[in-house]
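for the writeup, i need someone to sanity check this before i put it in the appendix. the sequnce is what the collaborator sent (i think, or maybe the updated version? ugh). structure was predicted straight from it, no edits. if anything looks off just tell me and ill rerun, i have time this weekend
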Amino acid sequence: MKKKLFISAFVVISTVFLAKTQTTIYFQYDDCGNRKSRSITMPSLKSTEENNALPKEYSDNLDGKEVLIYPNPVKSEITIEIPELGDDEFGSLKIYNQEGKLALQKNKVSRKTMLNLSELPHGIYYLNISLADKTIQWKIIKE
């Protein structure tokens, strides 16, 4: 009986520990598909308050331009910034639900675009950002 209790306690503690120590890995690729860089983000284990203070702004590179997306997870409004986008350049955004159905679309995206997601139900969505013939995909969590 003690052995089963010990194993159960170990499983619970291990699960909590692993949930707090999830690692995020980001890759950047050149136009030919070769990996240019890799960065690893690991949350600290100090306290719950400090873990909630982790950055909620994420960046990526699309067609040589930096793309910022924040906040993620999102409650109502998400911001997509492409600061290096020219005045005559525009991109497009598409948000798909987990079933692959188009939930939201914006065809003319400029340097700073804010999307209101308050009408969407809670869950995980996929944000596709396209510039010219290049596309990146992000996972968005709607709280």
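The mean pLDDT is 77. The two ends are 41 Å apart (CA to CA).
thx in advance!!
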